[in-house]
Amino acid sequence: MNTAVRNLDGASAQNKATKLDAMIIGAGVAGLYQLYQLRQQGLNVRAYDAASDVGGTWYWNRYPGARFDSEAYIYQYLFSEDLYKGWSWSERFPGQPEIESWMHYVTVALDLRKDIQLNTRIASAQYNEDTRRWTVRTEAGETIDTQFLITCCGMLSAPMNEIFPGQDSFNGRIFHTARWPREPVELEGKKVGVIGIGATGIQVIQTIASKVGELKVFVRTPQYVLPMKNPKFSESDVAAYKDRFEDLKKTLPHTFSGFEYDFMYRWNDLTPEHRHEVMEEIYANGSLKLWLASFAEMFFDEEVSEQVSQFVREKMRARLKDPKLCEILIPENYGFGTHRVPLETNYLEVYHRPNVTAVSVKDNPIVRIAPEGVVTADGTLHELDVIILATGFDAGTGALTRIDIRGRDGRSLKEDWGKDIRTTYGLQVHGYPNLFMTGAPLAPSAALCNMTTCLQQQTEWISNCIAHLGENGVAVIEPSAALEESWVRHHDETASANLISKTNSWYNGANVPGKPRRVLSYTGGVGTYRQKCDEAAASGYSGFAMTP
Ligand code: NA7
Questions:
Q1: Could you give the CA distance from residue 450 to residue 530 in angstroms, rounded to a whole number?
Q2: Does the CB atom of residue 222 touch ligand 1 within 6 A?
Q3: CA nearest 73: which of 58, 88, 59?
Q4: Whose CA is nearest to atom 29 of ligand 1?
Q5: CA distances (Å), 310 to each of 9, 178, 322, 330, 332, in order?
Q6: DSSP 242-254
Q7: Is 186 exposed, middle or buried (0-12, 13-18, 19+ CB in 10 A)?
Q8: 199 lines ligand 1 (CB under 6 A)
Q9: What are the backbone dihedrals phi and psi of residue 546, each rounded to the nearest 5 degrees, phi first?
Q10: Mutate which of 220, 226, 382, 508 to test ligand 1's pocket (most atoms within 8 Å of Cβ)?
């Protein structure tokens, strides 16, 4: 390891390339573990992150009410029992500050900080066919010369934050949820507008409603919601989940969604009464279980989808009471679970508060932001002091297309994915040798997964692949066009059978104007995906071109 070169950071390195075996972009859940693994393998590896600290998603998303929708004890890394058991959660679904502390705990426990460069945004990455290495440039002008480039940028890290004309003219404060400042934001007594009711908007709304003076929620597409049960953990609760470490380690990697539960019933095996009992029981669990572990048929069979949707609508209707609110907030035109289901706590009840108004912008869209507030198509000006954009992300692709990534022959990933979003197992792309990705399209980690389960599997696959290359004297790996085509075809066949492909959402790129449509997540299940990736490795990476 050349420490003289490795210590060249920031300004001093402007004219001299930092030379690495592997460079990781991102220091979140995937990046931290990838860094640890490759360092253990003896590589000269370094992670870079635009943020001022580690944490990835849990660094950026510090908006009011940000918290897990995965049970905390399944979101942890499972590769080390000591690391797992050395941390204790305070509740079933903790909030962002606690999650961020856990990420700091991991960073310190694995002694990762010395190999992470923060406050460094990557501008470009170019594959050089002569040297067969990547030249990466930071926005500050530093150059990194690396054999392997591994993107651990997060699948929801490119915010849709510039979407309305006139945003810059707003006299108040305007924030995208994923760019929430570290210092406290004064909301007390203020007129606040929240645009968007995805998983994020819902967490914000239920958290700030009682604090702000006036809250206007701009609702376009209604959203199915499930109530969260979030008990505090006693010492014995913590001991009990820690005792399940081995069991979780065995189960999580193989379930449909990387959660601890899996589909248990077949719709047609049960009477209508029994189905209802099952739904009631699972609903009472207060988790994502009704979505991810009740009846798999809801994803494929319109009739089953409608019946489960009807069950959830009834639950929402019973809480909302007001017919006008029901009309604005309860979905009718798509099936439950065909896009991300948020968990909530007294979210629907918030709309009964006198200071909260649901403004439907379905038929009367927001047309611009004026200096005083939000303007809708009918000319109404909603005067506001603060606007919160809970408007989502350019998921899966955005984090990578916002970097100028150039592969063989100078081809651009932004241009390629601008035409057609394709990957091989979501791990590599034909035309981009030695580029590995996590959380990228056409893998479960692009959406439909307990993220840590999937990101552990992907980073481990990448580390094993790099080890295999080293052991076999291979310098460069790239999936063939044929292998990529077969993965894309398999992905599409699986996705088109799933009702997710028929509902507009970020799951299939519908939220980004001009984005090519393709279901981003592999919908064949986390266990199946793992098996396919394992088979590819066991075959000696058949279908990948490997050059010494
Ligand atoms: P989402 O789920 O993409 O939600 C974005 C919300 O913003 C959604 O309600 C959108 O309505 C709304 N939106 C976006 N643009 C507009 C405009 N122009 N006008 C009105 N409303 C708009 O993002 P989240 O951050 O909530 O969640 C992303 C993931 O993060 C989540 O699934 C978790 O995995 C964590 P639309 O539905 O498009 O009509």
A1: 14
A2: no
A3: 88
A4: 199
A5: 57, 33, 18, 10, 9
A6: HHTHHHHHHHGGG
A7: exposed
A8: yes
A9: -130, 125
A10: 220
- Residue whose Cα lies nearest atom 22 of ligand 1: it is 196
- CB distance 156 to ligand 1 below 6 Å: yes
CA atoms within 13 A on the CB side of 279: 25
Q: Is 288 in the pocket of ligand 1 (CB under 6 A)?
A: no
Closest atom of ligand 1 to CA, residue 178: 25
CA 232 to centroid of ligand 1, rounded, Å: 29
Read off the pLDDT of residues 1-58 as tens digits, 9 standing for 90 and up.
333 333 444 444 446 899 999 999 999 999 999 999 999 999 999 999 999 999 999 9
CA 351 to ligand 1 centroid distance, Å: 19
Task: Tell me how far apart the alpha carbons of residues 372 and 352 are, in angstroms, rounded to a whole number.
Answer: 26
Judging by DSSP bridges, how do beta strands 373-376 and 366-370 pair with one another?
antiparallel
The DSSP letter of residue 62 is -
Residue pLDDT, tens place only, 74-122: 999 999 999 999 999 999 999 999 999 999 999 999 999 999 999 999 9
Instruction: Give distance in angstroms: CA of 202 to centre of ligand 1.
Output: 10
Q: Is 296 helix (H, G, I), strand (E, B) or coil?
A: helix
Identify whether the C-beta of residue 407 lies closer than 8 Å to the C-beta of residue 434.
Answer: no
